[in-house]
Amino acid sequence: MDPIDQSPLFISLLFVGLMVIPLLLRFERKQLGSKELVLLALLTAFAAVSRVPFAGIPSVQPTTFVIIVAAFIFGAESGFIIGAGAALVSNIFLGQGPWTPWQMVSWGLVGLSAGLLRQPLLKWKWIRLLFGFIWGFLFGWIMNAWVFLSMEEQTLTSFLAVYAASFYFDLAHALSNVFFLALFAKTWIRILERFKQKYGISNVA
């Protein structure tokens, strides 16, 4: 492929990087104690590692669920950091590539939006389930963008083909989010709230 033909992909990767860097820099300036840093590291690690055993089942994993629930309790910026970190760390085991920045942004946005909308999401279970279902598709649609931009021939037909081909995987992701949220969200929220109160941790970020 000619380097000029790859320019849309390079531009898109630059754009993705510019989305991630400001939030990381903002987070960097925060004065966090050791308890907060350890907590973020643990949640990031768990979100990442929980993806690995499900690698053989395309699009089915509890990573999105962990990011959503963590953002409910610890806030939007924490949700973004956990989401972006989970993508980066899990790909150490599953393989890094040009898709990694896109996954970092996708899961980061899951956490960011869950934190920003946590009041209605915590109040009504059906809204949580709908939120998880919608993000199953949004995640896939964002990831489809880099697939399309990496193609040699970028036409409306190829664009529609990429998004049509991903429907099953997006649906699997959406339904798995609903499954994990329906079965485990209440317990996880209670545990994380108790942990937050026991160690005197306010919203991490």
Structural class estimated from helices and strands:
mainly alpha
- Proportion of beta-strand residues: under 5%
The outline comes out as: globular
The average pLDDT is 84
Tell me the distance between the termini.
Answer: 43 Å
Pfam families: ECF_trnsprt
Transmembrane segments: 7-25, 37-54, 66-93, 99-117, 129-149, 161-185
InterPro entries: ECF_substrate-spec_UCP037395 (IPR017196), ECF_trnsprt_substrate-spec (IPR024529)
Keywords: Membrane, Transmembrane, Transmembrane helix
Can you describe this structure?
With 205 residues, the chain is mainly alpha-helical. It has a single domain (31-189), classed as Orthogonal Bundle (Arp2/3 complex 21 kDa subunit ARPC3), CATH 1.10.1760. It contains nine helices and no strands. The chain crosses the membrane at residues 7-25, 37-54, 66-93, 99-117, 129-149, 161-185. Keywords: Membrane, Transmembrane, Transmembrane helix. InterPro entries: ECF_substrate-spec_UCP037395 (IPR017196), ECF_trnsprt_substrate-spec (IPR024529). This is ECF transporter S component.
